[in-house]
Amino acid sequence: MEDAPLASLSLTHVHYNPADRLSYLCAWLALVPQGLCVVYATLIWSNREIEIIMMFAGQIACEAVNWVLKRYIKEERPREMHGKGYGMPSSHAQFVTFFSVSLSLFLLFRHVPHPTETHTPFTFFQRFVLSLLALASAAAVAASRIYLNYHTLKQVLVGCAAGFIFAIVWFGFTTYLRRAGWVEWILETNLARLFRVRDLVIQEDLVDSGWARWEERRLRRQAVPGKKSR
Q1: I need a surface site. Which of 6, 95, 110, 176 has the fewest CB within 10 A?
Q2: How many domains does the chain have?
Q3: Domain, as residue range, for 34
Q4: Phi then psi for 26, rounded to 5 degrees?
Q5: Are 147 and 27 in contact (CB under 8 A)?
Q6: Considering the domain boundaries, does residue 13 fall inside one?
Q7: Using the 8-state DSSP alphabet, how is residue 4 labeled?
Q8: If you average pLDDT over residues 140-145, what whole number do you get?
Q9: How confident is the model at residue 168 (pLDDT cuts 50, 70, 90)?
Q10: Residue 1 is assigned to a structural domain of this protein
Q11: What's the pLDDT tens digit per position in 7-57?
């Protein structure tokens, strides 16, 4: 009996024109969703912030909506594309749009960081500029899908619209969870306390996480005569 032919895990497999530098850049932009998943996992594991957990849950739900839409619409990809699967709407466009819009909504309407002795958080204008950069980056990823012939313009625009709408809906849903006290209730559960889930990023900057305590400890060591840090 002959062995079955090997299959290809096409999660990070991207077709591009090696003679075209812009096509090469677009190939790297196609890996942004995978990179963002790594960022999500790293932040959740290192910070245990419920805000990041809720945003990641929304990202997964948005991907599930895309999966359903593709199999309901069943629109083929461009003929020049060598891959497989339906193309409407673009999952890349929907993914990065949800992320950038959710991040922007958080920075502009939910994140109110307080200054500390060791750190001055971003102003509202700086957070606004950061939001614009996130949206511009999402637009670049979405445009790369058209340039690489993975999707048509219509498929990308519908993906962006779906990601935008779902981000607004999810932000409204998480806002309700906060105002109704459900987030506080979750944080008091034994499971949340077991995994040390917290809710500090609303008022504290992640950059300042633990830094104030470290500075206090460092200055205390320096104040002790004859004691040097190693």
Answers
A1: 6
A2: 1
A3: 18-223
A4: -65, -35
A5: no
A6: no
A7: P
A8: 91
A9: very high
A10: no
A11: 555 666 777 678 878 888 888 888 889 899 999 999 899 888 999 999 999
Tokens for 139?
A: 């637009």
What predicted TM-score, i.e. pTM, was given to this entire model? 0.83
Distance of CA 177 to the CA centre of its chain: 20
Structure tokens that stand for 121 in this block:
């958080």
d(CA 201, CA 51): 7
CA-to-CA distance for 121 and 124, rounded, in angstroms?
9
b/e burial code for range 12-21 (CB count within 10 A of at least 16 → b)? eebebeeeee
- HSE, CB side, 13 Å, CA atoms: give it for residue 170: 28
pLDDT digits 0-9 by tens, 59-111 = 999 999 999 999 888 888 887 665 577 778 998 999 999 999 999 999 999 88
Helix (H) or strand (E) holding 160: helix 153-179
**pLDDT tens column, 117-133:** 666 777 888 889 999 99
The span from the CA of 20 to the CA of 106, in Å, is 37
Give the Cα separation of 73 and 84 in Å (integer): 15
Instruction: Look over the chain and give the mean of its residue pLDDT values, rounded to a whole number.
Output: 84
Measured CA to CA, the distance from residue 134 to residue 185 in angstroms comes to 32
Q: What size, in residues, is the chain?
A: 230
Would you say residue 7 lies in a domain?
A: no
